Amino acid sequence: MSPTETSERPEFDRDVVIVGGGPAGCSAGVFTARYGLDTVVFDRGRSSIQRCAFLENYLGFPAGIDVETLYDLMHDHAEEAGCDVVADLVESVEPLDDGGEPRGFVVRTQEGRTVTARRVVAAARYDGEYMRGLNDEDAMFETHEHDGETHEHFDKSYADEDGTTPVEGLYVAAPYETGYQASMAAGRGARVGITVVEDARRDRGVPEALANHYDWMRRERELTEEWADRDRWREYIHDRVPDDHGLDEEQLVEMREREIDRRFETYLDDDEVDRRTRRGQRRLLEHVDDDAVLAAARRIEAERSASEADD
């Protein structure tokens, strides 16, 4: 797991609420939770992907994968990253009033939960009805005529490509414009998750020139002598911090050292790469049918015995 930081703002129950636990929602949650944002995913258990009989075009599964196993894998991944995945239906997202100014959100669920959050990611496609209580409702929904009747639907072009919307702190990850394939939904969720992290970084005082977020691990041997020196990173950050950064000296030093720590922690030595590789394989086995695992083990043992006999 990549380095994490403390929760964004203590006055909210959560940093991020994600509505929808399908490919888009779980993908977004992996990125936000790995960064350290306190994230909950509400999944009503009726994701669009669950209407598929069998998934044959999701990259990484050469013979396809049944939807139930993929769903379990997605939720397992989100939880491993740090998300809480809650089986509940979000009924409304409303602005949290702060002295007359909306700031953050109140999320209410079918089972009576009330959660406040700094940011909300809409990753469920069920017509956006749960967003009816937001201040920009008129712009969110569009009307059209069909068979002499007027219908109203969530405007698929309401959100920008990165998921941001005119409502501060509200993001749309549901793949309205990118297409409805599961892989497209996962990609859309990843893009929105990164957007949320980058906005959180800006709020924490990270200058625009450093706000971009990269979530990948590198091999330690790629860290050259120059960049293995913390002072070189201090120079790098200093050169990119604008004069009007708005931080006092203590805040500036804290931000800078936190950034350096985060960058160094993305480099793994060979032993750690091997450890994570083995653990990753074991975690995948937890989702494979036991009979298939036993059959494979018997086949491997038979092949080894035959090889030893030949020797």
UniProtKB/TrEMBL annotation:
<dbReference type="InterPro" id="IPR050097">
    <property type="entry name" value="Ferredoxin-NADP_redctase_2"/>
</dbReference>
<protein>
    <submittedName>
        <fullName>NAD(P)/FAD-dependent oxidoreductase</fullName>
    </submittedName>
</protein>
<dbReference type="InterPro" id="IPR023753">
    <property type="entry name" value="FAD/NAD-binding_dom"/>
</dbReference>
<feature type="domain" description="FAD/NAD(P)-binding">
    <location>
        <begin position="15"/>
        <end position="84"/>
    </location>
</feature>
<dbReference type="InterPro" id="IPR036188">
    <property type="entry name" value="FAD/NAD-bd_sf"/>
</dbReference>
<dbReference type="Pfam" id="PF07992">
    <property type="entry name" value="Pyr_redox_2"/>
</dbReference>
<keyword id="KW-0285">Flavoprotein</keyword>
<keyword id="KW-0560">Oxidoreductase</keyword>
